[in-house]
Amino acid sequence: xxxxxxxxxxxxxxxxxxxxxxxxxxxxxxxxxxxxxxxxxxxxxxxxxxxxxxxxxxxxxxxxxxxxxxxxxxxxxxxxxxxxxxxxxxxxxxxxxxxxxxxxxxxxxxxxxxxxxxxxxxxxxxxxxxxxxxxxxxxxxxxxxxxxxxxxxxxxxxxxxxxxxxxxxxxxxxxxxxxxxxxxxxxxxxxxxxxx
Length: 196
Description:
The chain is 16% helix and 42% strand. The protein is an alpha+beta fold. It folds into 2 domains: 132 residues, Lipoxygenase-1 (Sandwich), CATH 2.60.60; 46 residues, no CATH class. Strands 1, 4, 8, 9 and 11 form a 5-stranded antiparallel sheet that branches. The chain has a 5-stranded antiparallel sheet with strand order 3-2-5-12-10, covered by helices on one side. A 3-stranded antiparallel sheet has the order 13-14-15, with no helix packed on it. 16% of the residues are buried.
């Protein structure tokens, strides 16, 4: 499987340290410096995969003095990494899926994990689980993307019988949230076609 990770590193006193691991095998370990315009791009072919795999992106070795602030406490420079994208076999993981993963900070006084964040200013590890079959994962990511994008788009509808159902919008039409088979392959094909 071809894996591509794009990170935007920010400089302060030095470039950030980055470790990339797939299934506990170290793929990269060193300074995260731009190697393609403003970005650090890592590409690799991973041949030994499990049914479920774990990608870890670790920012480490940052010290308190690497965050430079002005007199008012506004950050002027920071030593950090910003995750821009992950691709498997040239298929990008939707950004909303990336935001839904956990970052485990290794910094005093922080929660166990942080979600909805791709700016890794703290030392810590971002964990992304992925499947062996990139095509199946791609379509599952599209469905997950629709679900996550519509969490705030759900509505409670009252049927003529008085029964209330939870519904959400998928591809421009409302579907019953309680039905498991409410999305057809044609709906999925149309979503993929419209995505491109």
